[in-house]
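User: Some background: our group keeps a shared notebook of sequences we're curious about, and every so often someone picks one and asks for a predicted structure to add to the entry. Today it's my turn. The entry only has the sequence so far, pasted here. Could you supply the structure so I can complete it?
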Amino acid sequence: MQQPIVGILLAGGKSSRFGSPKMFAEHNGKAFYHHSLDAITPFVKHVYMVTQPHYVDQIKSAEADVSILIDLPSVREKGPLAGMYSVMQENRSTWYLVIPTDVPFMTEATIHLIVKEIQPGYQAIIPSCKGRLQPLVGVYHATVAPLIEEMLQAGDYAVYQLLQKLKVKTVEVEDEEPFYNLNYQRDYDYLIKK
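Assistant: Of course. Here's the predicted structure to add to the notebook entry:
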């Protein structure tokens, strides 16, 4: 791999629709967040998990090799972009591999499809499945940090809006399952407990 990549696990959501913290729900005996962690670990030099303050101790006790962060005060409670920005300020790397903690079917093979497309001239490598971009599972270049900061200061928290400002390489991925995002308990009951 030509340049170092830092991993960003986004675990800051409130899971209000799910009814309990999604990242701790289990699939095949492992917490959801651990499936995300396992999928990205082979491709990164270090992983940061961005979460709510009240989960820090619980995660720290289980994950010795993962750095646990909360959003910087200036961007707190401003969604996934805030988590990405906070890690970018903490660890100055060239590339950042981003993944949420509620995609329990994500695989190392899918991440490899994305990471292998990293090349100079692009600011983001984003998978697309069945015509739909998946911007929360992607690789972002360090040059996006100032753009994210501008957006957050302007009150624009949409990741799709960020992509409009970037030179993006799209990677077509055939299999939808790795991107299944479980937002409701009924999703869990249908996909995990079936």
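Suggested note for the entry: The mean pLDDT is 86. The first strand starts at residue 5 and ends at 11.
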